[in-house]
Specification:
Blueprint (H helix, E strand, L loop, with lengths): L2 E6 L4 H5 L1 H9 L3 E8 L12 H18 L3 E7 L24 H15 L3 E5 L3 H4 L1 H17 L3 E6 L2 H14 L20 E4 L4 H10 L5 E2 L2 E2 L1 H6 L3 H7 L2 E5 L17
Parallel strand pairs: 1-2, 1-4, 2-3, 4-5
Antiparallel strand pairs: 5-9, 6-9, 7-8
Helix pairs in contact: 3-8, 4-6
GO molecular function: hydrolase activity, acting on carbon-nitrogen (but not peptide) bonds, in linear amides
Protein name: PIG-L family deacetylase
InterPro entries: GlcNAc_PI_deacetylase-related, LmbE-like_dom_sf
């Protein structure tokens, strides 16, 4: 049995990027630990932002973790940094915002979990934080430094294949002209940079249950959100659309194609 720690910024991030891999590893008998930096209390939702939303999203996180077979959930307790109207860094942030945390201090807190668990692997995000959320960028920085401190041998950057994403977005833009294709051109990671393509189709039921646990994130802001739209996809199509998860492991030759988180070239 090996131990994998999945480090995320907010509740529901695990459902969108790594849930299938988590469920797969748990089913294989590995120990899966979920670490989340914030409670997501400043995210879009129909509930008012603040403590009530944070408590609700934390409860959703535990339901998601149970659906995926996680052995442990750790909340680091930082404040959700939020987003500005244009998707950048918010002007007003809580005093303990994750984005403002001292890098070394935050890394030491995560490293203590990695050491305690004797983690064989930790997942973070790519340097751009996927789509650029400041807390996601901070996950990359903090996670990479924590792995250095703890000596965790495998660091995987959870991401999406940008080439496939752009194909889908361009197709969708034909029917929905309001979609800004350019905003996706620098998101996530190009296909040839991805080293791990994990087939999680056998675990999409657990992944869907993880998404369903985050009910507050299905609507909010101007209406239905991405997670809500994902949940409407019929089961056979869901297995196809969400049956692969992607990771980048730095230091491997460009074009490496591995199929399991613990695989080496």
């Amino acid at each position: 049995m090996k131990t994998a720690v999945f480090f995320h910024a907010h509740p529901d991030d695990e459902a969108l990027l790594t849930a299938g891999t988590m469920a797969m590893l748990a089913a294989e008998g590995h120990r899966v630990v979920l670490v989340v930096a914030t409670a997501g209390e400043r995210g879009l939702a129909d509930l008012p932002k603040g403590n009530e939303l944070g408590r609700t999203r934390t409860n959703e996180l535990y339901r998601s973790a149970a659906a995926l077979g996680c052995a442990r959930v750790v909340l680091l307790g930082y404040g959700d940094s939020g987003l500005s109207v244009d998707g950048g860094m918010a002007d007003e942030r809580p005093d303990n915002a994750f984005i403002d945390a001292d890098l070394e201090e935050a890394a030491q807190r995560l490293a203590s979990v990695l050491k305690e668990e004797a983690a064989d692997l930790v997942t973070i995000y790519d340097p751009a934080g996927g789509y650029g959320h400041p807390d996601h960028v901070q996950v990359h920085r903090v996670g990479r430094r924590a792995a250095e401190i703890a000596g965790t041998p495998i660091v995987l950057e959870a991401t999406v294949d940008r080439d496939l994403l752009l194909r889908g977005v361009r197709l969708a833009a034909r029917f929905y002209p309001a979609i800004d294709v350019r905003s996706f051109e620098s998101a996530y990671s190009p296909g040839d940079a991805i080293t791990h393509r994990i087939n999680v189709r056998r675990h999409t039921r657990a992944k869907r249950a993880s998404m369903a646990a985050h009910a507050t994130q299905a609507t909010g802001g101007d209406g239905e959100r991405t997670l809500g739209a994902m949940m409407k996809i019929p089961a056979p199509a869901y297995r196809f659309v969400f049956g692969t998860e992607w990771y980048v492991r730095r230091g491997l030759p460009r074009g490496t194609r591995l199929r399991h988180p613990f695989d080496n070239p």
